Amino acid sequence: MTNRTQLIDVIKITDGVFTRITDMHSNVPWSEFITGQQLDYEYIGNHSGEKIISPFVEKLLVDGILSDVNLNMLCAIIYAHYSHIWDNLYNIYISEYSPTDLLHYKETINSNDNLVTTYNTINTNVRTGSIASNASGNNNIDNNYYGFNSSSKNPVANNVNNATTEETETFNNLTDKNNKTGNDSNDKTTSSIITKEGGSSGITPQEIMMKEIEFRLWDYIEEVFKTVDDILTVKIYS
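^ that's the sequence the OP posted. Answer follows.
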């Protein structure tokens, strides 16, 4: 037999899942602006009360009645499944921003140039060799004289002077070295900002404003109701 039991037949409008979840977890996002009982009135009375219950809920019925124990179990399951989604959606819902900020494009470019110069210079002067200066010679002095009434010289004295001078300068393997080793570093950091007016990623101002209107018309509570439907009603309503 096809199940035709409606949600309002098993869950009371005055004591539904939102009342119990809010009582169990006082920090649920909607507690900032609406009570759990008000949500039950809206959910059962205007949103999902006439929807067919899910096979899961049907299995929890005893003689067509959903007990308090089983209803609490359903509330615990729903909270475990969707509480993080409710939190994330609510943070988006209450976010504050200016949609026109998307019309301004700003780019910051930072660059860091590091120039390092390494040098290793060796100047070497090597002198190898010798310089020699030699001087030599002979000095002969003629001391022969003619005698009285003589046609030939008679040696009186013969002086011979031999003189030799020698100067030698020698230098071997004399090396002069001048070594220079080191690094020169030059760091340069530059920053530039480019600002452009107009839509980013090709989006026009009109498209941005239409997206903003769609977002503002989005109903956070409607999204919460959809998650609860996923557990309590058949999938055709999900």
